[in-house]
Design goal:
two-stranded antiparallel ribbon, 11% helix, mainly beta, single chain
């Protein structure tokens, strides 16, 4: 099953569009961040 959400991220007073996609499959749990993630996003893998 694939889900898609359109949202925004704020940089100062500007809103930048963000497209989030998630795919759920049977099997091992994996987490991949694609694009140009912020350092905080890269660290979220460990949480």
């Amino acid at each position: 099953m694939t889900s898609r959400v359109a949202t925004v991220a704020f940089q100062g007073i500007e809103a930048v569009p963000v497209d989030v996609q998630a795919q759920f499959l049977n099997g091992q749990v994996q987490f991949h961040v694609v694009g140009l993630p912020d350092k905080a996003v890269a660290e979220s893998r460990e949480r």
